[in-house]
Amino acid sequence: MPDPVSYVLNSVRTLVDLGGPVVAVQLVISVIGLAMVFYKIIQFAPLRQASFDAIGKAIDLWNGGDPGHAGKLLDRSWSKLAPHVKFGLARRHDSDRELLRDELARRGMNFLRPYGSLLRALELVYYLSPVLGLLGTVLGMIDAFRQLAAVAGSEQGSSALANGIWEALVCTAVGLVIAIIFTALHAMLQTRLERVSEETSDLLTRVLTSEVAGG
């Protein structure tokens, strides 16, 4: 049974040999993109639904007249959102509501900002990959026709053109595969960010409105 690492390295080497430096650049970009995806997955991992539910329970306890227990739940929470919720709950009765609302909105944006990082960079991966593939194809076609001109009139002409076109299309194929994969990964991360944003907005809004809503 072949060694998986050797198999991958040999496959990469074959692709680079067929597609040239453009494919090498595409593969480097895809490796960087995968590193960013793994980082984002690890970053989002602590943001489980249970952590948001625990904060919501703390808000209900605070509104139910048990701020001590609620404060302990928030202090024990792993979520970085918990201190901001506790800040709002502790100050909503002795602070201007509009100012407090603005402050909680600012804190919410600061909480979410790190989770939105690198998503633009991932967009560049799936935007640039097919463009680089097209560039590699054009360069490959140019080289194929150059070789065809060099052997014009010989039996090698059609063979050189066919081989050149086939190798040039490898760049486009690699670019499209990378673009498809990273489009799906970006959509997954963007959906996760939207879900976290909704939960964050809901909790910070409940800090100010849960009394009006009846808990």
Brief summary of the model shown:
The protein is mainly α and 215 residues long. The protein has helices spanning 4-19, 21-44, 49-63, 67-76, 82-91, 97-116, 119-150, 156-213.
Oligomer: single chain
- The end-to-end span amounts to 62 Å
- The SS-based structural class is mainly alpha
Q: Mean pLDDT score, rounded?
A: 85
Compute the number of structural domains. Answer: 2
User: Strand-and-helix sequence, N→C?
Assistant: HHHHHHHH
Shape: elongated
**Beta-sheet strand percentage?**
under 5%
**Helical amount:** over 70%
Radius of gyration: 27 Å
Number of strands: 0
Tally of helical segments: 8
Low-confidence stretches: none
Biggest sheet overview: none
Describe the protein's architecture and organization.
The chain has 215 residues and is an all-alpha fold. It has 2 domains: 4-45 and 126-198, no CATH class; 49-114, no CATH class. It is 86% helix and 0% strand. It contains 8 helices and no strands. The protein has helices spanning 4-19, 21-44, 49-63, 67-76, 82-91, 97-116, 119-150, 156-213. Helix 7 packs antiparallel against helix 8 (156-213). The chain is elongated and about 90 Å long. The mean pLDDT is 85.
Could you name the key traits of this structure?
215 residues, mainly alpha, 2 domains, elongated
